[in-house]
Amino acid sequence: MNEKKTVLTFDGLKKLEAELQDLKVNRRREVALLIKEARSLGDLSENAEYDAAREEQANVEARIATIEKMLNNAEIIDEDALDAEAISVGSKVKLYDVKFNEEVNYSIVGSTEADPLQGRISNESPLGIALIGHSKDEIVQVDTPDGVDEYRILEIA
User: Fold this and answer.
1) I need a labelling partner for 152 at 20 to 30 A (CA). Which of 34, 68, 101, 113 fits?
2) Residue 146's pLDDT is what?
3) Distance (Å, rounded) from C-alpha 128 to C-alpha 114?
4) For residue 124, what is the DSSP state?
5) What is the pLDDT along the chain (157 residues), one digit of tens a residue?
6) Rounded distance, CA 132 to CA 129, Å?
7) Cα–Cα distance between 40 and 108 in angstroms, integer?
8) DSSP string for 40-99
9) Residue 1: enclosing H or E segment and its boundaries?
10) How far is CA 110 from the centre of its chain?
């Protein structure tokens, strides 16, 4: 069965690797101490601290497994090799939002790195899908729940 590729920029790769390292080295140790302390409180069948620590341990291990899976299936975007003529994952774009009569800036990233509040939109989002492959000065239409939004592509970097 083919696993879905995780599209990452180099920065996104480094952040995931750092998070994985922190989880494996620091969080595992912290959770082990919590479990040890909770065990010392006595009867485990009625020990809420023990149950909470075990749940945290499960969460940490699940996140480690998720990150490892993403890294094993990662496709790293070489931002230096991007074509500035057409939008792709890794592109930074300046758009003119026709509906709101304003300029907006976005970076197109993989879904793992998306953070719309920071101007990082996923290549799998409606806007990301609409922008991929288009060039400067083109008008792109995006279907949204409120209707169709239009954007003019002002710059691609």
Assistant:
1) 113
2) 86
3) 10
4) T
5) 567 889 998 989 999 999 999 999 999 999 999 999 988 887 777 788 899 999 999 999 999 999 999 999 999 988 777 778 899 999 999 999 999 999 999 999 999 999 999 999 999 999 999 999 999 999 999 998 889 999 999 999 8
6) 6
7) 50
8) TTS-GGG-HHHHHHHHHHHHHHHHHHHHHHHHHTEEE--GGG--TTS--TT-EEEEEETT
9) none
10) 6
Quote the pTM value: 0.78
State the DSSP H helix or E strand holding residue 121, giving kind and residue range, or none if neither. strand 120-122
How many angstroms separate the Cα of 93 from the Cα of each of 79, 112, 132?
Answer: 13, 19, 11
27: which 2 tokens?
């969080």
Distance of CA 7 to the CA centre of its chain: 9
Cα(150)–Cα(140) distance, integer angstroms: 6
| CB neighbour burial string for 69-90, b if at least 16 within 10 angstroms, e if fewer | ebeeebeebebeebeeebbbbb
Q: Are 148 and 141 in contact (CB under 8 A)?
A: yes
CB proximity list for 12: less than 8 A, separation 6 or greater: 109, 110, 112, 113
Q: How far is residue 58's CA from residue 125's CA, in Å, rounded to a whole number?
A: 30
